[in-house]
C-alpha cells in the first residue's frame, strides 16, 4: 500500500525509521536520525503533515519514511521544511503526494503486519504450534453477534489475539480493525490467515488515542476482556476507558464472569454510557459467558 500511495515501483525498497506503531508514538530512532543528519538525494513530501519519504543511495538504495503524526513530540514537523528546502536548493527532486490520512495509517499498519508475520522483527520464532482456533466458539460468537451487534460498519476490536473473534465479525459481513498487545498472538493470526495485514496491529490499547481521534468508530468491542480482578482493575479501567472513547455509538464486551461484567458496566455508567449485562452462558462455560453492551448517551 505504501508503494501505491507514494507512486513507487514494486522493486523499490521502503523502510520506516521505527519498528512498530508503538515506536511511532515515541520516535526514539527518528530523533537520533534527525539529530545525526540524513543524506538524501530525493524526497517525497506526504500531504497533511503526515510525513516525508527520503531516498537514500548509501549504504544501500532505499526509501526511508519518517512521520511524527502519531507522537506528542514533533521533531520532524519542526525541521521538515528545512530538509526539503535544502534538497531543492541543491536541485534535488522533491515531489508532493496527496495521501488521505486514513489510507496512510492503513498502509503503515500493513507494513508493520507484513514485517511481523515475515519474522523481520524477530531473531527467531519461538512459537512452534499454530494459533488457537476453536470453530465452535466462532460459530457461537457469530450467532451472538447477529442478535446483539449494534448498527454501524466501522468497528474496532481490542484484544483480538490470533483472530477468533475477528473471524466471527468477518462472517457477519464486517471488516474490523483488530489489535492486540501480544505480538506473537497477532503474528500467528496473520500467518494463519485469520487476520488482515492492513487492518491488524500490535499496540498497548492505552495508546489508541495516538492513532485515532475520539468517536472514530461506530462500535468498539472486545471478546473475553480480562480476566479482571481487584489487582489489575486499574489497568483494565484505563484500557476500557481509552477504547470506549473511540466509539461514537456503542460498545460491546464479552467476559468470563458476571462479576467482571458488573464492574465494566458500573465504570461505563460513570463515563456516560447506558447499557445492559447479557447472560450468554452455555454448558461448556469457557468463552464469552457474559457480555456488556451499551450506547453512548453523553
Which helices and strands, and how do they pair?
Elements: H1 2-6, E1 14-16, H2 23-26, H3 28-36, E2 42-46, E3 51-56, E4 62-66, H4 80-89, E5 93-97, H5 101-117, H6 135-148, E6 155-158, H7 164-171, E7 177-180, H8 183-191, E8 200-202, H9 208-211, E9 217-222, H10 233-244, E10 247-255, H11 258-270, E11 273-279, E12 290-296
Parallel strand pairs: 1-4, 2-5, 6-7, 6-9, 7-8, 9-10
Antiparallel strand pairs: 2-3, 3-4, 10-12, 11-12
Helix pairs in contact: 5-8, 6-7
Strand content range? 15-25%
Largest sheet: 7 strands, mixed
What would the average pLDDT be, to the nearest integer? 94
CATH class of the largest domain: Alpha Beta
Total beta strand runs: 12
Q: Uncertain segments of ≥5 residues (pLDDT<50)?
A: none
Question: Which strand order do you get reading across the main beta sheet?
Answer: 8-7-6-9-10-12-11
What Rg, in angstroms, do the CA atoms define? 21 Å
Q: Cα distance, first to last residue? A: 37 Å
CATH superfamily annotation of the largest domain: Vaccinia Virus protein VP39
Shape: elongated
Helix-strand sequence: HEHHEEEHEHHEHEHEHEHEHEE
Would you tell me the structural class of the helices and strands?
alpha/beta
Query: Which percent bin holds the helix content?
Result: 25-40%
Amino acid at each position: 500500500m505504501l508503494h501505491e500511495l507514494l507512486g513507487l515501483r514494486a522493486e523499490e525498497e521502503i523502510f520506516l525509521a521505527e519498528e512498530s506503531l508503538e515506536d511511532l508514538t515515541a520516535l526514539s530512532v527518528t530523533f537520533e536520525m534527525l539529530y545525526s543528519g540524513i543524506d538524501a538525494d530525493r524526497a517525497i513530501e506526504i500531504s497533511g503533515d503526515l510525513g516525508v519519504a527520503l531516498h537514500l543511495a548509501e549504504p544501500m538504495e532505499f526509501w526511508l519514511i519518517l512521520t511524527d503524526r502519531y507522537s506528542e513530540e514533533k521533531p520532524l514537523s519542526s525541521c521538515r521544511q528545512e530538509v526539503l528546502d535544502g534538497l531543492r536548493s541543491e536541485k534535488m527532486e522533491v515531489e508532493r503526494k496527496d495521501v488521505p490520512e486514513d489510507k496512510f495509517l492503513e498502509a503503515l499498519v500493513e507494513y508493520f503486519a507484513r514485517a511481523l508475520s515475515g519474522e523481520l522483527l524477530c531473531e527467531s520464532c519461538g512459537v512452534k504450534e499454530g494459533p488457537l482456533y476453536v470453530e465452535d466458539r466462532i460459530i457461537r460468537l457469530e450467532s451472538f453477534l447477529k442478535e446483539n451487534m449494534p448498527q454501524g460498519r466501522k468497528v474496532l476490536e481490542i484484544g483480538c489475539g490470533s483472530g477468533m473473534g475477528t473471524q466471527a465479525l468477518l462472517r457477519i459481513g464486517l471488516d474490523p480493525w483488530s489489535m492486540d498487545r501480544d505480538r506473537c498472538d497477532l503474528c500467528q493470526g496473520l500467518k494463519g490467515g485469520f487476520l488482515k495485514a492492513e487492518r491488524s496491529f500490535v499496540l498497548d490499547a492505552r495508546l489508541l488515542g495516538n492513532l485515532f481521534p475520539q468517536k472514530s468508530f461506530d462500535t468498539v468491542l472486545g471478546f473475553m476482556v480480562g480476566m479482571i480482578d481487584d489487582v489489575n482493575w486499574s489497568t483494565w479501567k484505563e484500557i476500557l476507558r481509552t477504547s470506549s472513547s473511540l466509539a461514537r455509538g456503542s460498545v460491546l464486551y464479552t467476559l468470563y464472569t458476571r462479576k467482571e461484567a458488573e464492574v465494566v458496566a458500573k465504570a461505563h455508567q460513570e463515563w456516560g454510557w447506558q447499557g445492559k449485562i447479557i447472560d450468554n452462558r452455555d454448558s461448556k462455560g469457557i468463552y464469552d459467558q457474559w457480555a456488556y453492551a451499551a450506547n453512548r448517551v453523553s
